[in-house]
Amino acid sequence: MNEIELTPKQIVAELDKYIVGQKEAKKSVAIALRNRWRRKRLNEEMQDEIIPKNILLIGPTGVGKTEIARRLARLVGAPFIKVEATKYTEVGYVGRDVEQIIRDLVANAIRMVQEQESLRYEAKAEEEANKRILQVFWPKKTAIKEKVANPMDIFFSSEEETEEADQPKQLEEPKSDRRQKMYEDICAHKMDDREIEVEVREQERAIQGILTGNSTEELTSNFQEMLGSIMPKKKKKKKMTVAKAREIFKDEELEKCLDMDVIVDKAIEATEQAGIVFIDEFDKIAEKNRGGGPDVSREGVQRDILPIVEGATVNTKYGPVKTDHILFIAAGAFHVSKPSDLIPELQGRFPIRVELQSLTVDDFRKILTEPNQSLVKQYTSLLSTDGVELEFTDDGIDAIAEYAHRVNLETENIGARRLHTMLEKILEDVAFEAPDVDEHHIVVNSDFVAGKLNDVVQNVDLSHYIL
User: Fold this and answer.
1) Hey, how many other C-beta atoms are within 10 angstroms of the C-beta on 245?
2) What's the pLDDT at 202?
3) pLDDT at 106
4) Where does the Clp ATPase C-terminal domain start and stop, copy by copy (predicted)?
5) Is 417 one of the annotated binding-site residues?
6) Does 280 show up as a binding residue in the annotation?
């Protein structure tokens, strides 16, 4: 993985492009990320001793907890996985085994490294794919020595041979030149719409349905791979466009170029040194009153998660993976329970705790307009494809922000997600009629917003269901 050198201020500035507010949370994750960069500058003995300071994000849903972690991982190109703590139960009974978190993280890392390595060989793979397409259009045959000096320059095509028999030999264009011209047309995508018949590998879909179940995921995957390597690859002829054939051939050529051993080594290193695990709904496994009862498995989940967070070696199909230096970011609303309800050992493994603030009217206003690819930009772009020009006025945006804040206070507080439901309700008729509407300029002002939302917002019971 390529290391990106960013200062904490630069990291926060990048996060500000997508997430409104929550300065303390951004500051904490920025420091955690920079500490990784600092650690790599130390000697090996010191590196082993310095472990990441895991972070616990506390705050209601929809305030940016998940987005902070996701954007952080994208920013540095680190392997990332988001999981919900409630999907896991003690030692994998009914639910999933917690070690599957690390296995899934490694699988994500494998995909990331494969994509990076594929970029290195992309030009070469496309060149080979184009040659294979040319071979389908104009197969290369063994030439007859008596007829030609250079046997590699002759390529037979029954239709062309018939046509060429009537042509004067002095006007005949060399076949090698015409074949080269066809190859250039293929490379320039001029023949992408032409249909050809090619041999493609048949996918062994039947194997995938033999074994199911969360507790046997790794066994199932290994069993499938084993059968896949033993059984011969079946091929079948299929008609498709040149463009589609190029994609298939390109993938096959990339497989030949990529060294899976190198990819696995790089992926495991990236997982161990730069992996980020985001565990959502962490408050759901905290026990307010410890003891017996139906919630006893919550403590079991905590104790199963503890070794992974502390630092353990997890066996995966790609080999053992150490979790000592993986950064864990946990998040939860903690409305009913509180962080102190977690078992003490797990509390100690999340030393950095940040409380995220509920969103204000001003925050909603900024979320609508300021981030890259903001909601207003998204809806404007979507409807522009039907020739409709949306214009959000300042008072219209203010009205949406105020309605969203009000409904969050009066019903469930779902944070910024409320804006999605609001905008869908406001623009429902516009989106439905857009392809057929005569009016191509729609102004979304405060009156327009009030006309769509006022009745629903006034009726608190109705807003519970609609907004």
Assistant:
1) 23
2) 67
3) 95
4) 359-458
5) yes
6) yes
Instruction: Tell whether 205 is in a known binding site.
Output: no
Candidates 129, 101, 444; CA nearest to 257 is 129
322 labelled binding-site residue = no
Of 411, 387, 346, 256, the C-alpha closest to 56 is 346
Asked if residue 74 belongs to a known ligand binding site, the reply is no
Beta carbons of 293 and 82 less than 8 angstroms apart = no
Mean pLDDT of all residues belonging to the chain? 80
In this predicted structure, the answer to whether residue 457 has a pLDDT above a threshold of 80 is: no
Query: How many CB atoms are located within 10 Å of the residue 264 CB?
Result: 18
- The more confident residue out of 278 and 212 is 278
Q: Which two tokens stand for residue 291?
A: 């003891």
Is 65 annotated among the ligand-binding residues? yes
Asked if residue 456 belongs to a known ligand binding site, the reply is no
Res 137: pLDDT: 85
Q: Please answer whether residues 79 and 275 qualify as being in contact, where contact means their C-beta atoms are separated by less than 8 angstroms.
A: yes
**CB 50: neighbour CB atoms within 10 A?**
13
The full set of domains in the chain, from first to last, is 8-111+267-355 (3.40.50.300), 116-262 (no CATH), 361-462 (1.10.8.60)
Tell me whether residue 393 is annotated as binding.
no
Instruction: Quick: pLDDT tens for 14-62.
Output: 999 888 888 999 999 999 889 988 988 999 889 888 888 999 999 888 8
Please determine, for residue 464, whether its predicted confidence score (pLDDT) is greater than 70: no
Residue closest to 312 by CA, chosen among 69, 40, 98 = 98
Q: Is 401 left (phi over 0), alpha (psi -120 to 50) or beta?
A: alpha
